[in-house]
Amino acid sequence: MADRTGGFNIAAFSFLRSGRSSQHAEVCAGSTDLCSEGLFDMLLPKKDRKTQLSLGDYAKEIAGIGHRDGGRAAWEAGWGNVAVWLAHKYFPDEIGSAHADEFHRPFVSMALLPYDASAERATGGILIKNGTWKPVVWNWRARWNILVIPNPRKRKKHEEVAIVLIPISDIMLRGGRETFGFDAGANPEILIRSVFVPKHRTVSLKALMRGDGNAQAGYWQYRLSAAALLTIHAVLPLYGVAAAARAPASGRQVLRRDTRVTLEALRNIDAATHMLSGLLQRMQVRAICNVPLVTDECRGIRRTAVLAGHLILTAVDSLASICHGKTDDDQIEMQSRWRDARTLGLCAEVAIRSFATLFEGP
């Protein structure tokens, strides 16, 4: 395979980022193969699933891997599912059958708001003159990318952007070591120069908020609007952060030297988890009853998720301070894990604010 990154060694990329581009690539030692575990297509109605995956079960799947890789596995799986869901809901003809099987697994990358981008109307579609994005989730096996671009057709509030589906052949990649603060896997920047996107591969923000698109025979996943599903994923990655933050503190002798700080930090983590559980229960009732989340509800959920994330970050900082400057291997390991959890918490906050800007306007 050609190196699309301008010299970066693709074989060295962490498999946490869904592995190398080859469908038969070997898993690197010490990494997590989320693809082979079927964690990138949980929102799709699989052929071998007699009953649809409920929102509660889906949340448990994401939360269940929260402790792995410092919470990054939950982040990658959650946002990877969003990207696949968006592609199948709004661009089913381009992506193909939503019934994933062993040989046709869907892989889609996604970026939210661009660093900078400009587009203009063209006959039969949109011409993206230029743009630069950092992916919220990047998959080296993906053939398609979902991007947010300025919509040159609309000037009203809530209609200033559009979602487009771009094939991998239409983008350029610039190698990088960080995406939303991650430094363990190498995600690229996405560059676009003079790319035409036909109308059937664009969808307006209004349609996303309204929930238009492929209904897929009543699956709750497809009844949701994009705003609602992105709101759900303001909550789910934070389960991973909470699990990653709490795990190092369990049964560690070194933390017993400062019981007050430890207990206060754990209380903050538990309080954040309780807040997140309440949000999830509310969204689950909406999904079961087929009642859409309205804009104000989505906004309130995002704000509560930000508060929960703040509690977790405060707890992580307190726990890390106990081990600060220590040279014991166990303490160094704990510091490293809390550093990962803090990074992920900051990533979640950036993502929440990004799509809050996307769905609420400037």
From TrEMBL:
It comes from the Bacteria. One of its GO terms (molecular function) is oxidoreductase activity, acting on the CH-CH group of donors. This is Acyl-CoA dehydrogenase-like protein. It comes from Paraburkholderia rhizosphaerae. The lineage of its organism: Bacteria, Pseudomonadati, Pseudomonadota, Betaproteobacteria, Burkholderiales.
